[in-house]
Amino acid sequence: MAAIETQERLGRSLGFFSTFAIGTGTMIGAGIFILPGVAMANAGPGAIISFMLGGIIAIATAISMSELATGMPSAGGSYYYISRTMGAVFGAIIGLGSWLALIFKGSFALVGLAAYFQIYYQSPPYLIAVAAGLILLVINYRGAKVSGSLQNIIVAMLLVVLVVFIFEVMFSAKPGNFVPVVPYGPVSVLTTTGIIFISYLGLAEISTVAEEVKNPSRNLPLAFIASAVTVTLFYVGIMAAVVGGSIPGQATSMFTPLADIAGLIAGDVGRIVIVVGALFATLSTANGAILSSSRFPFAMSRDALMPKWFITIHKSFKTPSNAILATSIVMILLLFLFDIEQLARLGGAFNVIIFVLLNLAVIILRKRTLPGYAPTFRDPFFPFTQIVGIVGSLMLLPFLGIMPLFFVLVMAFVGVGWFRYYGRGKAIPEYNLFDLLEDTVEQKKVKPESIVKVLVPISNPWHEQDLLKLADCLGSEIIGLHVIKVPDQTSLQVAQTSYHDKCMEIDHHFKKEFDRYPAIVGQKRNYIVAFDHDIANSIIEQAEMENVDTIIMGWHESGKFQYSLGEVASSVFASSKKQILLLKDHLPDKINRILVAYNGKENSIYGFYIARKLAANTGAKIVVLTVISPDEEEEKKKEIAADVTELVVKDDIIKVEFRILEKYSVEDAILDAAVDSDVTIIGDSSRRFKIAMLGTMSQRIAKHSKKPVLIIKKPRPISKESLNNLMKKMGR
Questions:
Q1: What per-residue confidence (pLDDT) applies to 651?
Q2: Residue 365 near residue 71, CB atoms below 8 Å
Q3: Does domain 453-731 have CATH number 3.40.50.720?
Q4: Which residues contact 448 (CB under 8 A, 6 or more apart)?
Q5: Domain 21-437, what architecture?
Q6: What pLDDT is attached to residue 687?
């Protein structure tokens, strides 16, 4: 009997109100009881406008997140949406940053809880905050349904208490308190919006439990939009009540203003009700932060961006217990490092970046294809909603202060570094933002089209035969191109006339050699003489005009201290949109063995395809070599072996074998194997924005190999080369 596969899953236990409560409870919790005092101290009555601005940005982003969530209802929330839209590098940055931002908010809530607790019980604030954090750790450790039930009760109580507070205070509000509207200037309103922006971080928390929501196509959009609208109305109402209910000249606590105002209007009973509500609210915020922020490391670990330790599911509670434990510990530690306003600013800063990228993700996905992405909710106001979310969020960033901006930059560098040294080569998704912009994400396996037209720039008698021989084997239509360089001071027409008058011997030699060289039967051949002030420009231009599939060039520079392709070859590499084959050294008269360095990347797949074409016309044997690190996981090694085995399909015409070597140095392994081969084919680096024209590995192999090397380079639509080409065109 076959073994039964066992799977561990998180059940869908959250309905609409539970999901709504997670977002609303986190947003309406600590912020609504603590931040009004901080906001009024910074902007006066203008703080009401600050909350309105924050709410508008939040509602716009909620609509965008509704579309993303119904298209990708998976745990990880904003991390998942951004990583799937922009790649693993952005995923690492946003995952780590979002995780810390929510932890900052949780710590902020615990500090607020301690502040309200001290109104009646004077205890060490850190002791209260730490104790509350430990209690929430235990609750979340038990599972989302336990947390969701607690959240439902708290949110229901809060809404009732706050509605009563707003109506009671507004009936006795003092109209004079609302003027002047902006006593500290317009800048103070934007600065305050940045400070209170952490309040709207709860939107991301809804998305992080999307995998646990029942009927996500209906409940997720409702929860997103309802939470954003509800919280905005309550924040504006509470802020108006705080402004209108304050007594001019009488100081109120910056962190507990609602309790002070309730005491003035309703005495001790009013104060007690608000204090109890505030305690539940801050508890709700911290609870929601732990519940949701633990999902970020959990989701990242599933994508190989964090250790598998975070994936561990508790056997009894079915929760990511290790992720929850790590999140709670960090949250408690932050209590001792920052004060309450610093926590708000730091959390708000990264919230700005999250909102910008989420709105941008919707714009990208509307224009490009992502496999499996089929949202059941689509924003009817696209793209105006996203523009509001992006512009509004970016507008706040400069007003947050130096430390929050520094935090954002540090997290960006940490995220890139973390990806580079931990996730690179194994992180999911394998594609990146440029792949999605080019709409090539679905092309998991490259299937090269036949090389039909081949352009051979001819300028050096020393290697003309090598390039023509290669072109004969690979193409069905060969175009020989000889470019005559004309000085800038001479017109091209004059140069053409002079050429025919003088009948330059060297130039005619190239044509004779092209005509004499034997061609494979059935090939079409054409020879072009071009006059141009710039040889590289002529090669690129003729390749476009003839619509060739590939350009074959030679690299015969002998510089000992630098990897030089030559001025013309370098310029063509930097600007051509065509595939380029770069031959280093001379081809032997007889090719018996071809080595293909294969790493599964696009250019190496093209390299294998070209090797088959070359072998079919020379009778050579192909050896496909894959080099992996000895430290690679066994599962990954098996996956690589299966990939290479699938690639190497043996037939009766071409002999193909594959070798997998475990070596720490890929370059040295290839160079050693190249000794026994007549020619080595290697795909150039697939990186878009590298400093050198060729990748370091292909440079080293070509430079140090004692046998000829053929380097395959397929330009990308969005790359350093394309940008250089664009700049050149703009400069003409």
A1: 56
A2: yes
A3: no
A4: 605, 606, 609
A5: Up-down Bundle (1.20)
A6: 58
